[in-house]
């Protein structure tokens, strides 16, 4: 095995180890994020229940959905007799203009510029999409990095193991040849294959020296 293949095996092991560690780190990070998303969903559900208990629950109607899937939802407030609008992103195709949705609001804050009524079903849909997509994609990327790293690591180890076996095999062949007198032997400054010199060649050489 050439020195270049040995170096290549070492390089593959290094890069394979790095990619494997990155893959495990990404997978672990997004795996933990999956647990965090479950907690966030539970918190949103609790906020919706608190809003229902302290506020007013009614039904509104989707009057428009723009090109970016932002829905306009109109609802009637019985407390002051006015119609109000709220806006929420629609994350699925199950809603269209005319769809009726629950709206939960605080009647004393409807005129506050920073107040946004809650549309529970759209809130939960949005959390579900994020919860299903982000951790899944992240774990998929981590698995891809890990598999590539593992493959490079295996190839690198195979190259190094093959290199060692080839070296051992060569050493064994050389030792066996030496034990049987086989190899390149020099006589009178001439290199001759085989363990024993050819008598005729040696005699001719001696005569030439005379």
Strand and helix map with partners:
Layout: H1 3-54, E1 56-65, E2 70-77, E3 82-89, E4 100-105, H2 120-179, E5 184-187, E6 190-193, H3 199-209
Antiparallel strand pairs: 1-2, 1-4, 2-3, 5-6
According to DSSP, the number of beta strands is 6
H-E order: HEEEEHEEH
Which residues sit in consecutive blocks of at least 5 with pLDDT less than 50?
185-196
Apparent shape: rod-shaped
First CA to last CA: what distance? 47 Å
Rg (CA only): 39 Å
Largest sheet: 4 strands, antiparallel
Specify the number of helices: 3
Helix coverage percent: 55-70%
Structural class: alpha+beta
What percentage of the residues does DSSP assign to strands (E)?
Answer: 15-25%
Overall pLDDT confidence: 74
Order of strands in the sheet with most strands: 3-2-1-4
How would you describe this protein?
The chain has 210 residues and is α+β, with helices and mostly antiparallel strands. It is 59% helix and 19% strand. It is built from 3 helices and 6 strands. The chain has helices at residues 3-54, 120-179, 199-209; strands at residues 56-65, 70-77, 82-89, 100-105, 184-187, 190-193. The chain has a 4-stranded antiparallel β-sheet with strand order 3-2-1-4. A two-stranded antiparallel sheet has the order 5-6. The longest helix is centred in the last third of the chain and has 60 residues, at 120-179. The model is unreliable at 185-196 (pLDDT under 50).
What attributes does this structure have?
single chain, 210 residues, alpha+beta, 4-stranded antiparallel sheet, two-stranded antiparallel sheet, 19% strand
């Amino acid at each position: 095995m050439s020195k270049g293949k040995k170096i290549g095996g070492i390089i593959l092991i290094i890069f394979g180890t790095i990619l494997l560690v990155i893959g495990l780190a990404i997978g672990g990070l997004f795996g933990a994020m999956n647990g965090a998303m479950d907690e966030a969903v539970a918190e949103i559900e609790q906020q919706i229940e608190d809003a229902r208990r302290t506020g007013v629950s009614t039904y509104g109607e989707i009057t428009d959905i723009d090109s970016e899937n932002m829905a306009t939802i109109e609802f009637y407030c019985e407390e002051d007799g006015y119609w109000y609008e709220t806006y929420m992103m629609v994350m699925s195709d199950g809603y269209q203009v005319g769809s009726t949705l629950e709206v939960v609001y605080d009647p004393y804050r409807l005129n506050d510029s920073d107040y946004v009524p809650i549309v529970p079903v759209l809130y939960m849909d949005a959390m579900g999409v994020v919860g299903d997509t982000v951790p899944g994609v992240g774990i998929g990327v981590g698995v891809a990095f890990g598999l590539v790293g593992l493959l490079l690591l295996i190839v690198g180890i195979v190259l190094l193991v093959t290199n060692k076996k080839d070296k051992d095999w060569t050493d064994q062949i050389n030792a066996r040849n030496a034990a049987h007198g086989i190899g390149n032997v020099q006589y009178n400054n001439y290199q001759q294959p085989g363990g024993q010199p050819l008598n005729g060649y040696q005699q001719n050489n001696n005569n030439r020296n005379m």
